[in-house]
Amino acid sequence: MGKARKKALDDKDRRILEFLMENGRASFREMAxxxxxxxxxxxxxxxxxxxxxxxxxxxxxxxxxxxxYDIVSLTGVDVEPGELLSTARxxxxxxxxxxxxxxxxxxxxxxxxxxxxxxxxxxxIREIKGMPGVLRVCPAVIIEKLKDHGREAPAGSxxxxx
Length: 162
Known about the structure:
Arc Repressor Mutant, subunit A, Alpha-Beta Plaits, 4-stranded antiparallel β-sheet, alpha+beta, 21% strand
């Protein structure tokens, strides 16, 4: 996968992105008023930002507990030399992995894992430890989320214990 080349963004593009990161449902008209341009101009800019891959998509942020996931962990995985990409792809395909990253630092692979309870998390960790190429698994269960996607989380919105 090649690196995306850096696109030049002007102030209006940056402000549109800030609007959408804060509220993905912001209307073109609402953004246009704040920017002092027409809603057609905002629409064209958003379409260009999508086409150029700067806006990669739109999503909803959900409290995992509402869906029955009481345990969320950030889990580091260390792998044998030469096994990084195959192991990372295998892990990323698992339904319990919500996000996966290749990283520098303490662990080659970092995962966000959602589990319904401690027993399921233990099963997941055991499964990962048993995968070919895995040397070490280091889960860190989230006790409380303080900031989520650029926004401070409401008090008591921890993904684990309250």
